[in-house]
Specification:
About 40% of the residues lie in helices and about 20% in strands. It is of the alpha/beta class. The chain has three domains: about 160 residues, Vaccinia Virus protein VP39 (Rossmann fold), CATH 3.40.50.150; about 200 residues, Rossmann fold (3-Layer(aba) Sandwich); about 160 residues, Rossmann fold, CATH 3.40.50.2000. A seven-stranded mixed beta sheet has the order 3-2-1-4-5-7-6. A seven-stranded parallel beta sheet has the order 10-9-8-11-12-13-14, sandwiched between helices. Strands 17-16-15-18-19-20 form a six-stranded parallel beta sheet, sandwiched between helices.
Length: about 550
């Protein structure tokens, strides 16, 4: 082939459709292509050297990840304002057109491998909106599209790469926990990366914490709780009209500020309809399984949630466990659900004298978090190691019952309640290991595990909820959910083997740095928020696109 650095037009996956004036490209050497090339690999062409690309019946033969890579490569190759013509199957039309001819229907849907082998198979399908969104995030603006027979035909223009306009975080919360700590770090990361951030919350301590991280936060003046107790429900019902007006005002006020992000319950119910009416992008974060909440008050929370669950652009779940638990009860589109783990900034180990045979547990003090199970397991530990000591960190009304249990079991000299601490890293740096015995049905993730991993602490936890997605046998000992005997044996095993403790801790720190830092997780959130923004922009330009 002649010097392709001067090429101006490309015909990708040409097959036998040879176009004059184009460089015809195909992976098959027997079709007379000008360039035999695998389009999933980088092209041997210079940047901005192409003015037009035709890709007819090509993208469906790629996975979505390969499609994204191809768009990025075409963005590199094409000059500003260059045109991209794409044809992909209209699967809805195929399904209807050949409803009485299933063999032909399947051939259209899944491809024909008789001539091209594996390259003839279809690996993905799109609606016009989903394909336009995929192109837009790589810098291609939709100029026009149409349905032609069994296909969709698109024309795109190379534009600029899109940027996230801003983030509006609205959150009703009644305390500080793992979700609030993660949200703070996430918003702070956006702020540090030059993304405008506005935050609104009901909780003074959370607002103060956001402010301390450089995120300006406003106070939500109307508090509505319809998922707590009966008293809160009655009060919430009385305040519902006022709250609806207030959240409508808050939504309108922030209509040009960016993607709205919400992780609580009531704000999703009250903000999302207004946001969709104003075509504002919306992303929900569901931090845990909803079933225990949905079963309250004769199913009222479930009814309210499902009324609006089709409206958000995307819903982020922090674990596969949460996604599976919510899949059949929320009414949320599977295609609009994204699983992205939480992340955190690493804690810095504070130099201190190690306290041998010590364990700590960080969590809110409430039933289901497993502190009572750990207390019941501790006598077996102190029998083997009389000087072993257990520290609890956290606040909550359950502490009173836990203190009574400690006294009843004669463990007052072996168990200490530290309450809420200002410097977690300083407090836990001397301790030998972290124990996280949660059996809480609402557990959606486990930020406390990440904090322990970042400090190189060995971990013991129940094989419950999302925990097996966070840790593995290389960095932790997972025991059967609720099994007190196994829990005590695991503690004794680590206390008996300093080399095992050291190895588990080192592996956990390595795993944390590879998968769970906020600098790894936050960009994944940012991309989803950007996709929501793009989806709204496309809907605004093409109101009838679907």
């Amino acid at each position: 082939m002649k010097n392709h650095n001067q090429t101006k037009k490309l015909n990708l996956g040409c097959g036998k459709d040879y176009k004059q004036g184009f460089v015809n490209i195909d992976i098959r050497a027997d079709v007379g292509a000008d360039l035999v090339h695998d389009i999933t690999d980088p092209f041997p062409l210079t940047d901005s050297s192409v003015s037009e690309v035709v890709a007819q019946d090509v993208f469906e033969h790629l996975t979505k990840e390969q499609q994204s890579s191809l768009f990025k490569e075409l963005f590199r190759l094409m000059g500003k304002g260059g045109t991209l013509h794409v044809r992909i199957p209209n699967n809805e039309d195929v399904w209807e057109r050949f409803s009485n001819d299933p063999d032909t229907r399947n051939l259209f849907l899944f491809g024909d491998t008789s001539e091209s082998g594996v390259w003839g198979s279809h690996k993905s399908g799109h609606t016009p909106s989903s394909f336009a969104e995929l192109a837009a995030i790589s810098g291609f603006k939709l100029s026009k599209y149409s349905a032609v027979d069994t296909n969709y035909e698109f024309e795109f223009m190379k534009d600029n790469l899109p940027n996230l306009k801003g983030v509006v975080f609205i959150n009703q919360t009644f305390g500080m926990g793992g979700a609030e700590n993660f949200n703070t770090q996430l918003l702070s990361w956006f702020k540090k990366n030059k993304v405008p951030v506005k935050a609104w919350s009901t909780h003074d301590a959370f607002i103060k914490h956001l402010d301390s991280q450089g995120v300006a936060a406003g106070k939500i003046s109307v508090v509505v709780d319809v998922i707590g107790d009966w008293k809160g429900l009655i009060k919430g019902i009385l305040l519902f009209p006022a709250a609806s007006v207030y959240y409508a005002y808050l939504t309108f006020k922030n209509r040009k500020s960016g993607t709205i992000v919400m992780s609580g319950f009531i704000e999703k119910i009250l903000v999302t309809p207004w946001a969709k009416l104003l075509n504002i992008p919306v992303v929900w974060i569901d931090f845990g399984p909803w079933q225990p909440i949905f079963s309250k008050f004769f199913g009222l929370p479930k009814f309210l949630y499902r009324m609006v669950s089709k409206l958000p652009d995307f819903v982020i779940e922090p674990s596969e466990n949460t996604r599976i638990n919510n899949l059949n009860i929320t009414g949320i589109s599977t295609a609009r659900t994204k699983v992205v783990p939480c992340g955190t900034n690493p804690l810095e180990l504070v130099p201190s004298t190690p306290k041998k045979l010590t364990a700590y547990c960080v969590s809110r003090m409430e039933p289901g978090k497993g502190q009572d199970l750990l207390i019941k397991a501790w006598p077996r530990v102190t029998k083997e190691f009389p000087s072993a000591h257990l520290y609890f960190i956290g606040e909550g009304d359950f502490r009173i019952k836990l203190e009574r249990l400690v006294k009843k079991m004669g463990l007052a000299s072996s168990v200490t309640f530290l309450g809420r601490v200002d410097n977690l890293a300083k407090e836990i740096s001397p301790f030998s290991l972290g124990i996280f015995p949660s059996v809480w049905p609402l557990e959606g993730f486990g930020l406390v595990l990440l904090e322990a991993m970042s400090l190189g602490k060995p971990i013991i936890c129940f094989e419950s909820g999302p925990y097996p997605e966070i840790v593995n046998s290389d960095c932790s000992i997972m025991v059967e959910k609720g099994n007190i005997n196994e829990l005590s044996r695991a503690v004794i095993r680590i206390f008996s083997s300093p080399s095992l403790a050291k190895q588990l801790g080192a592996n956990g720190k390595k795993r944390f740095n590879k998968d769970f830092t906020i600098n790894i997780i936050a960009p994944q959130y940012g991309r989803i928020l950007l996709e929501a923004q793009i989806a709204c922009q496309i809907r605004k330009t093409y109101p009838n696109i679907h």
